[in-house]
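Q: Fold this one first, please.
A: Sequence and structure below.
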Amino acid sequence: MADSSTYSARAASEFRVGDVLTRAWTVFTNNLALFFVTTLIVSLPNLLVASSKGPNVAAGNPSGFFTRLGVALLLVVVLNTVGEAVIVYGAFQGLRGQPVRVGEALQKGLARFFPILGLAIISGIAVMFAFLFFAVPGLILLVM
């Protein structure tokens, strides 16, 4: 059986996908409750919009639906941003071998809300431009 110094020397010199997947699975299973509850809370606005009826255009009153949709979109952005921060913080604490505390993870996530929101906006713009410059011309060529 190899001692821990041999393992750390091997781990520092070699990259093994199996080791990475094993460590990721361990962090995931050790913090399953935090990750599951966070994901459930982040998904609630999506579930509410999906379960609501579409706009009642025939009755001439679609404003209620679009108001709910706007509020849900705002909630999605806020909850998704905080949820990502909470999960990332929890994962890093798990990788460090530290206990993951929900209150501490939420506090750290809220403290980094605006930088993460800025990153989400920048990555959304990048995805939009990539779609416009690559997918749309490809679809136009495909149709022609």
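Q: Good. Now the second chain.
A: Here it is, same layout.
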Amino acid sequence: MEPTAPARAIAAVVSGIVGASIGSFLNVVIYRVPRAMSVVRPRSHCPRCGTSLGEAENIPVISWLVLRGRCRHCSEPISARYPIVELTTTALFVAFALLLRSFAPVAPLDCLAAAALAAAMIAFDHLTVARSIAVAALLGSASLAVVSVVDHADHRLLWAAIGAAAGALAAGFVPWVVRRLGAPEGTAPHGGAAQDGIPQAGDPGGLPLAVVIVALSFAAGWLWRPGGLVVAGVALVSCTLGLGRRAALRNLPGAACLLGVALLVAAGPLGHN
């Protein structure tokens, strides 16, 4: 039974508030986790002057707009990425609340989407995605198996598994083979785990990023039969091209995560019969 219109409206409002808060936290994760910093201490501060931010300066999106994208203390510009991440997370959470046929998978998909968004932003910074982010993505996708049992929708798991297997080949094995074949005899491909210090999904150092893509493929297959294969196809092209030496191509594995999340939103209304 699908939720009523009033229930969806309430869920959308609650999801928007939660999404904005999670988006604000993701900004902390994106900056600190790859640098092995605590996400708890010190409290949020201006990266330019180091001044701690007050509660009024930590309101998602609104604070950035009120301050006109500048620190109140040193007047240095604040990256537009902060409100973009917050708005994107909010939009994703609201979309899942409005578009899915049931509320049951909303929380797992919210968790997966947040982890994938963080992974994409970290990859865009040419830093290694932390294992904790990959674990969060796996927990989100694995929770869909519980939803299958509760909703008596075991048939979804087969297509989810097919999607995950295709995602593993696309984001991990195939790019790894391509790199091995392109490496000079007797040498590690591009120095082993990364190319010019940039982790790739097909590298050992990029394994967490590949895991996130596998989790996205699983969830997409769970939502819509060909969904996992579509995400895997996008990942195959993105991760393989991302192994190239051209700098313009090296953001493609991170872009695969964003496209995977977008496909989750699109696949939600399609569902299984």
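Q: Anything worth noting on the second one?
A: The two ends are 14 Å apart (CA to CA).
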